[in-house]
Structures are given as structure tokens and as C-alpha cells.
Please model this.
Amino acid sequence: MARKKSGFVLALDIGGTKLAVGVFDSSHGLLGRAVIPTHAEEGPDRVLERFIELAESLVRQLGLEHSQLSRIGVGCGGPLDAETGIIYSPPNLPGWDAFPLKKKLEEHFGVSAFIDNDANAAAMAEQLFGAGKGYKNIFYITMSTGIGSGVILDGKIYRGTNFSAGEFGHIVVARNGPRCNCGGRGCLEALASGTAIARKARREAARKPESVLSQKPFSDSGLTAKDVVAAARRGDSLAKQIFLDAAVYVGLGITTAIHLLNPEIVIIGGGLSRSGKLLFDPIRQTVEERAQEYIAGFVRIVPAKLGKDVGIYGALAVALERCPSS
Ligand SMILES: [Zn+2]
Model:
């Protein structure tokens, strides 16, 4: 139908700390965006209600009408079923137990909603609009409070048997490493996520009074991975070592991944990817040292391009991938 083709897309990014909505025109131009805190403790019904209000008010502000909406794309923390659009208790969204997100959105808006996990969504967004343009075999990693990934093979996202492929944060990189939230031990996420970096920094700083991490403004329990990056940039040797250790573990993980997948490009996104050389130099060096030259020689390891808007572009990419023709 002609009207549907000219319609706009509502892109919803559901995270544990923020909800972001983007409105895109039929040529994938971003018409507007809005963000609010998630307040996940309110539970799924109230969170979704506030999110829908936000989306509706953005649509009104843009002078658009409900009837022009063609479809909805959603990126959300998993686990989830990308076909039925049911969310299964993501760790960052307490109470979203078997929550029928797709059904609720379709009932409210009267158009099709397409849902995928946020790492897959971000991988597809980088493929369509960012650092992965022109590549068919892409390994996308997101590094922030947790670590996730999206695998694109022969141009298509690979979801696995029950939509759980790409759990890069839970590959084991240290036999006797620290316990992970998943119940495992030595997972990459337990060694190199923002949470793991901050935890190690707090522990080590208490023992090393000479480090800036044990002095103000860093010296409190709110110490974050971002603070570790800032201290490392100022030359603090403890911060540099903590960050280096984490980056080397990520390099080891990537070494495993590239032997398994033989990608053309590894794209690293998420908050920690903005650490520049501090992150990328040790990762590239580790891969160079530890991977087979024949495989490593082909692969580029680069930062993501979409930055903070990756969530809404990811949600758009989900809608485009699942419903390319309308
Ligand atoms: Zn784990």
C-alpha cells in the first residue's frame, strides 16, 4: 500500500537505565528522538506505559499522525524470543518475566512490531549505517557495564537455536577466574566489563594509597570504569594496569572469536569503546600475538561509529531486517 511505504518507523530502545525512542522517515532519516530514565523497579507495565506516552508525544511534536506509522522496531536486553517478541527476565529488567512486548505494542499501535536483543540490533545498525558498511562477515562487540556481541555471517544476523548466539561476555577466558553473574567462572564479562574493571579498581585502590584511584575524587565506593580510564589517561600506573589487563582479556576473547568465525571486521561499541588507544592498542597487539597470522591478517578491529544513538538505529535496523519490503 502506498501509504505504508511513505510511513515512518518508530524505533524503541529498552535498556535497564534508559528508554530511547527515535522516529525515522521512510529513507531512514532521523526525524526526532527522546530519552527518559527506565525506572525498571516500576515493573514492565508501568515502564511500557511511560515509554508509549513518550513515543506518542514525540510523534505529536513532529507533526505526524498515528495513521502514518508503518512499523515498530525494538532493541531490548535479552533473553528474548525474537519471533514471538516475548521477553524472558533480562537481568537489567526485573519483573519482565515472559512479558509479551510485541503483542502489547501491536495492540496499542495497530502495526507490526519487530523485536531483537540489543546487541544484535546494534550489530545490524553498524552493518547498515556505521563501521560495518560494505562488510558481510562482522563480529560486533558491545562493552559497557556488561559485554555482549552480535554475529553477522554472509550479511545476515546469526541468532542461534534459541536466540542466544553471541553471548561473548560469557565465553571463558580464565580457568580459575572470578565468579560471573551467570553462575559461571572466568567469563570475559567477569574480567573485562565496566562493572569488573570498577570492582577491581575499588579493591586494588584500597591497597595502593599512592594511586590517584585511592585519592579524591576517585576514592569512594562510586568509582566507575570511566574513572579508571580518566586516571589511566593521567598516567596512573594502577589504573593503566587494571585497564590493560581487561583489554588483554578482550583481545584473548577476540582471538577465540576470529578463529571460530573468520570475520572481515570486528567492531567494538558501547561506552568503554570510547577509551581509544587505551583499549584498542592492547587488543590489537594481543590478537596479533595470539591469533594465527592467516586469520588475523585479514581482520580489522575498529571502534563503532554510531555512538550514543546506536540503540535507536539498532531498533530501526531490526524493523528493516525483519520487514525489508514495507
Ligand atoms: Zn558469565
In short: The pocket of zinc ion is lined by residues 170, 180, 182, 184, 187, 189 (CB under 6 Å). Residues 1-5 have pLDDT under 50 and may be disordered. The domain at 2-123+309-322 is CATH 3.30.420.40 (Nucleotidyltransferase; domain 5). The two ends are 8 Å apart (CA to CA).
